[in-house]
Amino acid sequence: MKKIPKIGLDIDNCIANFDLGYLKRFGKFPEKDWCITRNVNNILIKEKAFWLGLPVLRRPNFVPTLYCSVRVNPHQWTKTYLKRNNLPNARLYQIKGGWGSSKYDVLKNKVDLFIDDSIGNFEDLNSKGLLCFLITSNSNKDYQTDLRINTLNIEEIMELYMKYYNK
Fold it and tell me: Is residue 40 part of a domain?
């Protein structure tokens, strides 16, 4: 196998099952995305148990270079979540802001590849020259791209990475 690139990982709906946690907390998804943002910013921002109790959706079978997530909760809660769930130890970059905040400035020159479930982040990073793979989630399953993965298995990631660079 070729040398593993420096890989960064998103957290929510990539590693942590935010959607399931949200459903357990509120019982349903609102019709509009802005309602989720409102609930996160006004309610979940204060709920440590919510952030620490999110189920693990996927576990990487490699050690990432870093994690990068846009979250409103305290940085330490996210670090605690990663440690409690025995996820690989890596630097955490947590961007304050709302949905749609760009991760590019944090990630540039730190990773060769980033993995995210957000179509917006995927498009933003790739448009700026930072390779991003889209990991399948409910919100992106109908989006068409050749840069899609389904797991955090290094073999699957490397297969697509090598295919991308051998075009």
Answer: no
Q: Could you tell me if residue 29 is inside a domain?
A: no
Q: What is the pLDDT of residues 76-129, one digit of tens each?
A: 999 999 999 999 999 999 998 666 678 999 999 999 999 999 999 999 999 999
Q: Which two structure tokens, joined as six digits, stand for 42?
A: 């006004």
Burial class, 132, CB count within 10 angstroms (exposed 0-12 / middle 13-18 / buried 19+): buried
Per the structure, the complete domain to which residue 120 belongs is given by 7-15+57-165
| CATH code (residue 85) | 3.40.50
Question: Which residues lie closer than 8 Å to 4 by C-beta, 6 or more apart?
Answer: 62, 154, 158
pTM: 0.93
